[in-house]
């Protein structure tokens, strides 16, 4: 009994439960300033708890399964949030999926990659990784992004930057199939392509010398991870009215709200990627960032294809000219970063400038 009391009082257990309780109390209610600030503090604690439990699971199952668990778990909950908002918001949310997915791609491929590279290269001058696995992941992200976010701008079967019903079904099936093929490649056929490597190119398993957590501990962490992630996404939604009010008061575009919420939702991946980079495991950072971008597209498009049966109004997926330029530049820069299998502080700066450009243009389109 004393053991379980101590276990519950551990912050990694107590915080997710507290966050879920805060979500239950705050859901569907407008929050005054002080409760909103308290909810934000609990949200931050839930993010840290999610990262801890993700790392426990990753240590138990090994790479790249650990990165995949966190990326898919966050994305599934995020997709559920997007679909629920679109079903309840009507025509006003016609571009929500596009804006959220594009924000996720820019945050992961430039923001998370850039800041992880910064920490990795400040410690070791040169960050090393497996170019074969990372190149395949980048090619998958680029294909999914182009198929789902660029082509709708140029198709002619439907009015506006949107797919026709048949085109949307094709894009959904293709996205899901391509994502499934990548997961098979990453976890079964070529798992060694996604393991961290030493500076002489030898693949290593993260935390080889640390004691592996038991299966029971890993299962408890999996449950607490899901609780923490549900709380993170839910509290981000609860905070959105306050964010919308702040954005409106500042005279900023409405799209900024989606960017802020995407930043909050992707905090667990960001912290986990930075921690991996500081441990000289930059490959894990890449697995998290590109895996999250891929899951965001590969799972969102099929979900909204199904939800479109109940959605009102058009489903706008095609990007505008400015965002297409940013996406093309991101793919080109990421390719040049990945091909050598080694990156320096310069590549970090380039990715972070691209990320800053995305944020600036969201504020000042």
Give a quick summary of the entry.
The protein is mostly helical and 365 residues long. Helix content is 76%, strand content 1%.
Descriptive keywords:
A middle domain of Talin 1; 365 residues; transmembrane helix; membrane; mainly alpha; 13 helices; Ionic transporter y4hA; two-stranded antiparallel sheet; single chain; globular; Alkaline_pH_Ca-Antiporter; 2 strands; disordered N terminus; transmembrane; 1% strand
The CATH homologous superfamily is termed NCX, central ion-binding region
**Helix-strand topology string:** HHHHHEHHHHHHHEH
Overall number of domains:
1
CATH topology: A middle domain of Talin 1
Number of strands: 2
Evaluate the radius of gyration.
20 Å
Helix content: over 70%
Spatial sequence of strands, sheet with the most strands: 1-2
* Mean pLDDT rating: 83
Provide a count of the helices: 13
The end-to-end distance, rounded to whole angstroms, is: 58 Å
């Amino acid at each position: 009994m004393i053991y379980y009391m101590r276990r519950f009082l551990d912050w990694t257990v107590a915080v997710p439960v507290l966050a879920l309780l805060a979500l239950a109390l705050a859901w569907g209610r407008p929050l005054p300033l002080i409760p909103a600030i308290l909810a934000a503090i609990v949200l931050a604690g839930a993010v840290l708890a999610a990262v801890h439990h993700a790392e426990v699971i990753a240590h138990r199952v090994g790479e790249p399964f650990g990165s995949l668990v966190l990326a898919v778990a966050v994305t599934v909950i995020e997709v559920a949030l997007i679909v629920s908002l679109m079903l309840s918001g009507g025509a006003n949310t016609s571009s929500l999926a596009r804006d959220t997915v594009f924000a996720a791609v820019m945050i992961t491929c430039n923001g998370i990659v850039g800041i992880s590279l910064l920490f990795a290269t400040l410690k070791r001058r040169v960050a090393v990784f497996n170019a074969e696995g990372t190149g395949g992941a980048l090619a998958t992200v680029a294909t999914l992004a182009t198929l789902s976010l660029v082509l709708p701008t140029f198709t002619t079967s439907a009015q506006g930057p949107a797919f026709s019903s048949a085109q949307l079904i094709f894009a959904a099936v293709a996205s899901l199939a391509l994502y499934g093929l990548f997961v098979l490649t990453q976890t079964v056929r070529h798992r060694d392509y996604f393991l961290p490597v030493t500076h002489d190119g030898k693949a290593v398993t993260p935390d080889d010398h640390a004691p592996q957590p038991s299966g029971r501990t890993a299962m408890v962490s999996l449950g607490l991870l899901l609780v923490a992630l549900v709380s993170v996404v839910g509290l981000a939604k609860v905070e959105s009215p306050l964010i919308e009010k702040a954005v409106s008061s500042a005279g900023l575009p409405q799209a900024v709200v989606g960017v802020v919420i995407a930043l909050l939702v992707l905090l667990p991946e960001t912290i986990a990627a930075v921690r991996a980079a500081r441990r000289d495991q930059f490959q894990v950072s890449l697995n998290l960032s590109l895996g999250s971008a891929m899951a965001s597209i590969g799972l969102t498009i099929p979900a909204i294809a199904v939800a479109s049966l109940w959605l009102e109004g058009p489903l706008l997926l095609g990007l505008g000219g400015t965002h297409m330029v940013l996406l093309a530049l991101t793919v080109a820069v990421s390719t040049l970063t990945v091909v050598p299998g080694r990156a320096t502080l310069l590549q970090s700066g380039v990715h972070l400038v691209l990320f800053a450009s995305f944020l600036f243009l969201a504020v000042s389109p």
